[in-house]
Design brief:
The structure holds 2 protein chains of 2 kinds.
Chain A: H1 10-19, E1 30-34, H2 40-52, E2 57-63, H3 73-81, E3 86-91, E4 99-106, E5 109-122, E6 139-143, H4 146-149, H5 151-164, E7 171-173, E8 179-186, E9 203-214, E10 222-227, E11 231-240, H6 244-250, E12 265-267, E13 273-275, H7 300-313
Parallel strand pairs in A: 1-2, 1-3, 6-8
Antiparallel strand pairs in A: 3-4, 4-5, 5-11, 8-9, 9-10, 9-11, 12-13
Chain B: H1 4-13, E1 26-28, E2 33-36, H2 42-47, H3 49-68, E3 73-76, E4 80-84, H4 106-114, E5 124-127, E6 132-135, H5 164-201, H6 203-222, H7 256-271, H8 280-290
Antiparallel strand pairs in B: 1-2, 3-4, 5-6
The chains are: A alpha+beta, B mainly alpha.
Region (Disordered) (chain B): 176-203, 230-252
InterPro entries (chain B): Ribosom_reg
Pfam families (chain B): RRS1 (PF04939)
C-alpha cells in the first residue's frame, strides 16, 4: 500500500536510512489510535499511557473506523506510515465497554495482539503527587504465578515489557531509577478453563509508583513507594497470538550480539584461571634424546664376552 | 571493646531492607524487571486492593533494588553512581527482520582471492607544514592529493608553457568521475546479482528451454518454403514433423483378425448400453436443435 520513496535529497536519505532494518534497533515507536466510538475513560487512558511512554509515542485524537481483530490492512498501513511497531487502539461499545487493544508489529505485519477491558481507572491527574521526569526507564514487577503458567499472561507480560522498557542501556544512573510499574494477575488459569468468561476471575492490576530511596545503613537503600501514575484494573478479553515461525524469526539474535565463547579457559574451584593447551600426539620412538653410550642396552652374553676380550687384550 | 551494641543501636535507627519471600524472585536486570511467583492473599486483594498492592509492590521493589545494588557500581564524575546492567534474558521480538549483508563488490571479490587485507588508516595525520595533527580528509584537512598546492615544480620532460595547476585539477576531476562510475557499477551489479543468481540456479532449465526453442525455430523454418515443406527431401536421421497430421488412416491390406475385433468392438459399444440402442434424451435434444 505504501509506495517506496526514492530519496531526492540528503535529508530524506537520512530518514530512510534511520527506518532501515539494523542489527541494533532503534527504540520502538508506539501509536495510540481511537476507534469509531470511544468513551471518556478510554480517551484518558490513551493519553495517560502516551504520557507514561513520553518519547517515541504518537497520540492520535481523530476517530478511525478500525477493527483490529477483523481487518489487518488498515492497521499495517498506519504502522508502516508512522514507522511504528507498537500500537494501542481504544474503543467503546455495548458489547465491549472501555476496550483497549495492545499490539505489536513485525516486518510491517501484525505480530500479536491482546484486548483488555478497563474496569476501574484512575488517571494521572486525579492522583495528586509528584510525577517522575520525562523519559526515564521504569522498573518492572510482575506478581502472580499466572505470568509463568498461562500463555495469555506470558504474552501480556512480554508485551508490557516491550511497551514500557524505553532505550536499551548498558549502564544506568542510580538516580534515574525513578518509578516502578507493577502488574499483578489474579484468577484461575485461563488456558485450562475453557469456559473462562467469569467476571470475578482473570483480573490484572496495573499500578505505577514513584520510588523514594532513604538511607538504610547498608549498601542498598530503603525503598518507599508513592502512587503516581494511572491505575487500572484490566480484564483480559480476546487475544491473537503470533505464529510460531514468525515469532522465531522475530526473536532471532544475530551472531554478532551473542556472547562470545572463550574456549580452553576455565576457572577451577579455588578460583584460579586455568588454560588448556592441546599438543598433538608425539611419537616417542622418534624422540631425539642425548646419546649416552654407557646406558646402551646390552644382553648378558655380550657383557661377559666383552670382559673376556678386554682381559685377553690387556 | 564491644561495638556490637552500638552497631545494633545504629541499625535500629534505620528501617530494614530485608524482605522474606517463600519463593525467591526471578530477575531480568537488563530490563530492570522482577518476576514474583508467590501466592497473593486473595481476600486482602479483594477488600483493600490498593493498600495491599502498594505494600506488596514495595517488598518486590526492595528486593529488585537490592539485586541492582549487587551489580558493579562505578562513580562517574558529575553524573553520580552508575551501575552496569547485564544483557537482557527474556526474548523480546524485534520490530524489523535482521538486515541481509550486501553482496561483495568487485574490489572485495578481488581482495578475497588475492588475500589482500584492509589496513585501517588513522583519521588524523601529522601535517609537516602546520606542525600539528589534522584530519586526513575533509574540513581543515591535509589535502595531500595536490588540489591546494601553492607551488608545483615543473617536471623535466614536461612542456614549459603547460599550466601545471590546471593539470592537477583536471586529474582530480577524472579521478572523481572514475570513482563515481565504479560506485554506480557496483550498485548495478549488486542489484542484478540477484537475478544472475536465479539464472544460475535454473541452468538446466535454461538449457532445456533453449533446446525446445531451437526445435520450434527449426520446424518453423522448414515449413516456410513455397510449398510449405511438403516436397523437401527428408534429411537422414531427422524426425519427420507430424504436427499438421490430423487423421490416421489404417492400411487397406492388414490383419483380418484385428479388423474383425475392431468392428465387433464398435458393435458391442452400441448394443452394450444395457439393452438400449437409442439414447432417447439425446435424440430429443438433437431433434430440437435441428428444428
Amino acid at each position: 500500500m505504501l509506495k517506496t520513496i526514492k530519496p531526492k535529497n540528503a535529508r530524506t536519505k537520512r530518514i530512510l536510512k534511520k527506518r532501515e532494518p539494523k542489527v541494533e534497533e532503534n527504540v520502538k515507536t508506539a501509536i495510540f489510535v481511537r476507534g469509531s466510538t470511544t468513551s471518556q475513560v478510554v480517551n484518558d487512558a490513551l493519553s495517560d499511557l502516551c504520557r507514561l511512554r513520553r518519547t517515541n509515542s504518537i497520540n492520535f485524537t481523530k476517530k478511525n473506523n478500525i477493527h483490529p481483530f477483523d481487518d489487518d490492512t488498515s492497521l499495517n498501513f498506519y504502522c508502516s506510515k508512522n514507522d511504528a511497531s507498537l500500537f494501542v487502539i481504544g474503543s467503546h461499545s455495548k458489547k465491549r465497554p472501555h476496550n483497549l487493544v495492545f499490539g505489536r508489529m513485525f516486518d510491517g505485519q501484525l505480530l500479536d495482539m491482546i484486548e483488555v477491558g478497563i474496569e476501574k481507572a484512575i488517571t494521572m491527574s486525579e492522583i495528586k503527587s509528584q510525577k517522575c521526569s520525562v523519559g526515564m526507564k521504569p522498573l518492572f514487577i510482575f506478581n502472580g504465578d499466572l505470568f509463568e503458567t498461562s500463555q495469555v499472561h506470558k504474552t501480556f507480560k512480554n508485551m508490557m515489557l516491550d511497551f514500557f522498557r524505553g532505550q536499551n542501556l548498558e549502564s544506568i544512573n542510580i538516580s534515574g531509577l525513578e518509578y516502578v510499574i507493577s502488574i499483578t494477575a489474579t484468577g484461575s488459569n485461563v488456558d485450562s478453563d475453557s469456559t473462562a468468561s467469569s467476571t470475578s476471575d482473570g483480573k490484572i492490576f496495573f499500578r505505577v509508583y514513584t520510588i523514594q530511596m532513604t538511607k538504610s545503613g547498608q549498601k542498598a537503600p530503603r525503598i518507599e513507594l508513592e502512587e503516581m501514575g494511572p491505575s487500572y484494573d484490566f480484564k483480559l478479553r480476546r487475544t491473537k497470538f503470533a505464529k510460531e515461525e514468525v515469532y522465531k524469526i522475530a526473536t532471532k539474535v544475530p551472531k554478532t550480539l551473542k556472547p562470545k565463547k572463550v574456549k580452553n579457559i576455565d576457572v577451577n574451584e579455588i578460583g584460579d584461571k586455568v588454560g588448556h593447551i592441546h599438543v598433538g600426539r608425539q611419537d616417542l620412538g622418534k624422540l631425539q634424546t642425548r646419546k649416552m653410550k654407557g646406558l646402551k642396552r646390552m644382553t648378558e652374553d655380550d657383557q661377559t664376552e666383552d670382559w673376556s676380550r678386554k682381559k685377553r687384550k690387556s | 571493646m564491644d561495638v556490637s551494641a552500638q552497631l545494633e543501636a545504629q541499625k535500629s535507627k534505620f528501617k530494614s531492607i530485608n524482605v522474606e519471600k517463600q519463593v525467591p524472585l526471578q530477575f531480568d536486570l537488563g530490563l530492570l524487571a522482577s518476576f514474583d511467583t508467590n501466592a497473593l492473599e486473595e481476600n486482602k486483594l479483594k477488600t483493600e486492593t490498593d493498600n495491599y498492592l502498594k505494600t506488596y509492590t514495595r517488598d518486590g521493589t526492595q528486593l529488585l533494588i537490592n539485586e541492582i545494588f549487587q551489580l558493579p557500581l562505578t562513580s562517574v564524575q558529575d553524573v553520580g553512581v552508575v551501575v552496569e546492567l547485564p544483557k537482557i534474558v527474556t526474548a523480546i521480538p524485534r520490530e524489523k527482520p535482521l538486515p541481509k549483508p550486501n553482496p561483495p563488490t568487485r574490489w572485495e571479490r578481488f581482495a578475497k582471492i588475492k588475500g589482500i587485507k584492509k589496513n585501517k588508516k588513522s583519521k588524523l595525520i601529522y601535517d609537516e607544514e602546520k606542525g600539528e595533527w589534522v584530519p586526513r580528509w575533509g574540513y581543515k584537512g591535509a589535502n595531500d592529493d595536490g588540489s591546494n598546492e601553492w607551488l608545483v615544480p615543473v617536471p623535466d620532460n614536461a612542456d614549459p608553457f603547460e599550466d601545471q595547476f590546471t593539470k592537477l585539477r583536471e586529474a582530480k576531476k577524472v579521478r572523481i568521475s572514475k570513482n563515481e562510475a565504479r560506485r554506480r557499477r557496483n550498485m548495478d551489479e549488486a542489484e542484478t546479482g540477484e537475478t544472475q543468481k536465479l539464472e544460475n540456479k535454473s541452468k538446466a532449465g535454461a538449457k532445456a528451454l533453449k533446446k525446445t526453442e531451437l526445435h520450434q525455430q527449426i520446424s518453423v523454418a522448414k515449413t516456410s518454403t513455397a510449398s510449405l515443406g511438403k516436397f523437401d527431401k527428408p534429411i537422414k536421421g531427422e524426425p519427420s514433423n507430424t504436427k499438421g497430421v490430423k487423421r490416421k488412416f489404417e492400411p487397406n491390406i492388414g490383419d483380418i483378425q484385428k479388423e474383425k475385433e475392431a468392428r465387433l468392438n464398435i458393435l458391442n459399444k452400441i448394443i452394450d448400453k444395457k439393452g438400449e440402442v437409442l439414447n432417447v434424451r439425446k435424440a430429443i435434444a438433437k431433434n430440437h436443435q435441428e428444428n
